[in-house]
Amino acid sequence: MEKVLHPAYSRGTANYGWLNANYSFSFANFFDPNKLQFGLLRVLNDDYVKSGMGFGTHPHENMEIISIPLSGEIRHKDSMDHTEVITAGEVQVMSAGTGVEHSEFNTSQEELNMLQIWIFPEKNGLEPRYDQKDFSELLKTGELINIVSPKSDQSENSLYINQQAYMHLGDFQAGRKIDYNLKNENNGVYVFLIEGEVDVSDTKLKKRDAVGIWNSSSITLDFKNPSRVLLIEVPMN
């Protein structure tokens, strides 16, 4: 088992007034040669957006983009003729493929906090697509919920992306202990603790800390406090 620890304080930060951003990997004006990506996971941004503000229309291509609002709501509009609102408890996926333009704005009265994740696709030049799903009821079960899967291995409840990657989200009480078995021996898993405190295979994480683990078939999560955790399993090359 190999590990890389990314404490919350080591993330890049940027405050634009309307946006307070935290970058787990090199992004925008933040560059760290040791934090270019984790396997095929390229971006994990923890953004706080003021009410009425947001990202104007901008392009993407050849990237699988996953957005997870933690509080507030996002109004999404894109060049595929989608105009949607995504709220806390929902997850959005957008395969940029050959190219798509979109905008994202906080249309709620409260500050928006969302995670934005970018994963390199299995193949470039795919047709762009959009989807979203409400996981709020499943997240009440206290189990690890599969929110994103590869198209070739899509679970009953998950959204799919064009990569052999899996994402799980879960809320757990103190004292809960679970094992996570990786789907592929060539994958690694990036554990991002949204809230709480957890030991991940003997590595202690607190709020917004993360650890990347590879060369292991499974990990153990031992929750010390009520916690919300995001697991991103991706190919390492």
From TrEMBL:
Q: Residue limits of the Quercetin 2,3-dioxygenase C-terminal cupin domain?
A: 147-234
CDD domains, per the entry: cupin_Yhhw_N
User: Pirin N-terminal domain location, by residue?
Assistant: 14-119
What Pfam families does this protein's entry cite?
Answer: Pirin, Pirin_C_2
InterPro entries in the record: Pirin, Pirin_N_dom, Quercetinase_C, RmlC-like_jellyroll, RmlC_Cupin_sf
- The domain of life is Bacteria
Stretch forming the signal peptide: none
The similarity annotation says: Belongs to the pirin family.
> Record's PANTHER family?
QUERCETIN 2,3-DIOXYGENASE
Name of the protein: Pirin family protein
Species name: Christiangramia sediminicola
Q: What is the lineage of its organism?
A: Bacteria, Pseudomonadati, Bacteroidota, Flavobacteriia, Flavobacteriales
